[in-house]
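Collaborator request, handled under Task 6.
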Amino acid sequence: MAKVIATHKNIKRQIEDNIKNPFDAFNEFIWNAIDAQAKNIHITVKHDSQNIKNLEISDDGNGINYEDLEEELFGKFNVSEKQVDKEKNHSLPRGEKGYGRFSFIQFSNSAEWITTYTSNKDRKKYQYSIKISDSSLDDFNPSKKEEVTGNTGTKVILSFTEMSKCKILTDPKNKNILNKLINSICLEFCWILELYHINIFINGKKINYNYLIEKKENTKLKVESYDFSLKFIKWTNQLKNEYSRYYFLDSKCNELFVKTTTLNQKGDEFYHSLYVSSDFFDHFDLFKANYDKVFRKLLDDLLNFLRKKRRPFIKNFSARKIKEFEQKNLFPKFDKFETQVKKPLYEKVVKEVIEFAPSLASNSNDSQRKILLQLIYRLLDDEESRRILYNILEVLVDDENKDQLEELERNLTKYSLKNILGTLKIIENRKNVIHKLRAMIDNEENYYLESDLQREIENHFWIFGEEYHLMLCAEEDDFTKLRNVYCEKILKLKKDEYENDAVSKRQVDLFICGIMPEGRLKKNLIVEIKKPNSFLKKENYRQIEDYKDIINNDSNLNSAHRKQWDFILMYKEISKDHVKNFNDIIKDETTGLAHDNHKNMRIFVIKWADLLDEVEFRLKFLNDSLEEKKSKLMPKKVEVEPSALEKFEDQNKT
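C-alpha cells returned to the collaborator:
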C-alpha cells in the first residue's frame, strides 16, 4: 500500500474548501482527460429519475505513467506534474493544483483508475489500476503493471456505496438529473471543445452544446501581408471558470497562446470567444509580441471586430433591462404633462446610459438602480444631476472610451434642451387653451352653453390637475353608466362582479379619474358646469350634494380606503340673492372648499376666473424657469473678428 504525503484530514479539508459543487468535482476528471491529450471522452451514467447511481469516465489520452506514480502523481497532494508543464498564457494543462484525483469525495465513496500508458523507458504499453477510498485518502493501492497491446487511455470508475453520497447529485427542480450534469459539462468545456475539436459522449451520445451558441461566424482578416482566419462565438451564458479570450493558433491549429479580451466584466452579457489561426504564428516569438508591428495591428483590428459585434447585443441588452425595470416599477412616475415630452426623452437617455455603462444596470440591486433612474429623471431638468451622473460614468470608463463619454455628455445636454423646448411648446399650447376658455366665459355678445365648455374641457382636463388622466363619462351619461364604466375600466371587474341594477338617472357633466402615484388610491373628480350667462344658485349646490349621496350609497363606487371623490361646481358669478348662502357654504375662499365634506369626499365651489388665474400663474412660473435653463443650454454665438478686407470695405462705405 502506497502513501500520499499528506494526511487524510488535510486532503479532505482542502478538497471541501476548494471544490464545493459536486458537478464541478466531476468535471475535474474531464479536465484530467483533456490534460492527458484525449480527443474522445466517454461517460457512462447509471441513474434513476432523481439520482446518479454509478459513473464511469474513459478517455483515449496518454494514460498515467507508472514510473512517475509515487514521486510526481498520486504520492503528492496539492502538487501536480502539470505545474511543470503549465506555460504562461496557455489553456492547458488545467489540473496543475493536484486536486482533481481526490475530488470524487464530493459525490462518491471511492474511485478506481484503470490506465494504459506507453513507458518512457522501453516504449512498451502497460496497464495497471489504482484505487482510493474516501475513508483513507492518504492511501492509494496501485496494482502490478502488465504489458498489454492496444491504445493508451484511462477509465475511472466512481462508485456509490452509501445513499447519502448518491443524494448529493439530486436536482429537486429538475427530475432528470442527467440534464443537469450535461449542462454543467457544456458550460465548462464548450469553449475548449471548439478549440481542440474534442468529443465528449454520455451513454454513447455526443453532447450538443449548440444551445449555448447565440452567434457563430467564420471570417478572414488581413494584416500587412498575413492572412488570419477568425472564428467568433457569442455564448448565451457566462462560461464556467473561463473569461472571454482570444485563442491564437498556428497553421496546424496548435494553440500558441491565449489572451483575455478587453471586453470582460462590462456587465453586458457579451460572453465571447475568438479563435485566431494563421501561419504568422508558426514562428512567432511570444516574448517579442509587444514589439511586433503586425501583432499590435492585429490586436487593434480584433478589438474593433469585437466592438462591431458587440453593438447589436448591447442594444438588445439595454432594451431587455428597460423592460425589466418597467416590470419591477423602478421607473419614476410621470404625470400627464411629462408623458408627452419628458418620458420619451427619458427612455432614450436611460437606453444610452445603459449602453455606455452596462454594469450600472447589471452589477447593482434594485434600490441602487432606482436611485440611478431617479438621477437620470432629474438630469433632464437639472444641471447638477447631469454633472453627478457624468462623474459616476467618468469613474467607470476606461481610457479608450473617453471619446464616447464626451459624446454621451453632449447627448445628455441635447436631450435636456429638447425636454425644455418641448415643454415650452406644451406650455404655449396650454396658454392658448386658457385664452380660449376665458374668451368663451367672458364673451357677453355670444354666450356659450355648458355643452360648449364641456367639449373644450374634455380635451384639456389638465386644468383640474395633472393626476387626472382618464375621461370616463361626459354629457348625457347617467350614474348607472358611470358605475358600469368605472367598475370595468378602473376596478377591472367583470360584469357579474358588480351590481347591474340601475343607480340613478341623474346625469353628470364630466367624470374624470386618476390614480395617485403614491399607492392604490384612485382619485375621482365630478365637475358640474354652469353656462357662463347664468348665475349660481343654492339649488345648483344641492345638485352636487345629490351626486355625493348617490356615490356614497353605492358600494362599488365608494370605498374609504381606495377612492377619493372630489366634486367641483364651476360658475362665473353668484346670484346676488344667494351670496350669503354660499358665504356660509364655502369654508376656504382660496381653494373654494366647502364645509359639507364627508370622509373621503370633498366639495369645491370655484369661480372660472380664479381657476384660470391659478393655472396661468403655474404655467408662467414654469415657463420662466425653463427659459432660464434654456438660455444656459443654448449654444453661444461666436463673434468672429472681421477680416482686413471686410474692415477696408467698411471704411470705404463710410
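The cover message to the collaborator said: "The longest strand covers residues 213-223. Residues 328-426 form one domain. Please let us know whether this matches your experimental observations."
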